[in-house]
Design brief:
The chain is an alpha/beta fold. The protein has helices spanning 45-52, 75-79, 97-102, 117-129, 145-158, 175-192, 203-209, 227-230, 233-240; strands spanning 7-16, 19-29, 34-39, 60-65, 68-69, 82-85, 163-167, 195-199, 212-217, 220-225, 244-248, 255-259. It folds into two domains: 1-81 and 161-227, Rossmann fold, CATH 3.40.50; 92-160, no CATH class. The longest helix is centred in the C-terminal third of the chain and has 18 residues, at 175-192. It is a peripheral membrane protein.
């Protein structure tokens, strides 16, 4: 089992140039749980994740991991605890799948240390978990978008961190592979206790798989909590500007959002 780490942000303001994207945000990530960040396009979801992984420095406020500012931690030390799968990662030209996944072991390599049986086992387990064993010897740039996404997830798994941040991990995946990836992340959380924070566009998948939802609107925290408390008709209207009906998912028992468009109206109650 992993160690529970406390990841939180205090008074966080982020931006690019003169544009403010996140404004004075306070957020506590529940340790050992699965959290999903949701919100409309350009509301700051990816920007928040970048700052939580120290890729973006705050204008004001701080990101804390076990009470220490992430921007002050040595890079390799942080990478042994916290892993990130960004939204659009790029691989070196010509690199094979096995070599790319093996790079997830870099934070665990010490000066003058050799590749170990433990490293081999971590890479093999990551390839197996993501159904990419058959791709191990292929160049990454020859793969389809969905295959590449699963390979990047394998690299993140090989890193074996206690906290894993993923920016839209289901991008490029068909629905069956979306479910497989989210099942895999749930397994990782339940068997190893990994704290998982992911940005998801699909509200219903977020509500089904996350223990904790974080809804952003215009760079601010609009709501946070268990799915039934966050995925409400009022919150969907406020965050997305969308009318909807929220019912109980007959499969998971979680809330299920049914959008209401101009060409569809809610059926009258009986």
């Amino acid at each position: 089992m992993t160690r529970d780490h406390v990841l939180n942000v205090e008074g966080l303001t982020l931006g690019y140039g003169e544009r403010t994207v996140i404004d004075r945000l306070d957020l506590l990530v529940p340790p050992g749980r699965v959290s999903a960040i949701v919100g409309a396009n350009a509301c700051g979801k990816s920007t928040l994740l970048r700052s939580m992984s120290r890729l973006l420095r705050p204008r004001t406020g701080q990101v804390l991991l076990d009470g220490e500012q992430v921007h002050r931690l040595p890079a390799k030390e942080l990478a042994r605890t916290l892993g990130l799968l960004p939204q659009a990662p790029t691989a070196p030209e010509g690199i094979t799948v096995s070599d790319l996944v093996g790079r997830g072991r870099n934070p665990h390599q010490r000066l003058l240390s050799r590749w170990s049986a433990e490293d081999d086992a971590a890479v093999a387990a990551a390839l197996e978990a993501t159904d990419t064993v058959g791709l191990a010897d292929r160049p990454v740039d020859e793969l389809s978008g969905g295959q590449r996404q699963r390979v990047w997830i394998a690299m993140a798994l090989a890193q074996q961190t206690d906290v894993l941040l993923l920016d839209e991990p289901t991008t490029y995946l068909d629905v069956s592979h979306q479910v497989e990836v989210l099942d895999l992340l749930t397994d990782l959380n339940r068997t190893r206790g990994t704290t998982i924070v992911m940005v998801l566009h699909d509200l219903n998948l977020a509500a089904r798989y996350a223990d904790h939802l974080v809804a952003l609107a215009d760079g601010r925290l609009h709501a946070a909590g268990e799915p039934h408390a966050v995925l409400t008709e009022e919150n969907v209207r406020a965050v997305f500007g969308l009318d909807c009906s929220v019912i109980t998912d007959p499969v998971s028992g979680r809330p299920l959002m049914l959008p209401i468009g101009r060409h569809h109206v809610a059926a009258p109650a009986h």
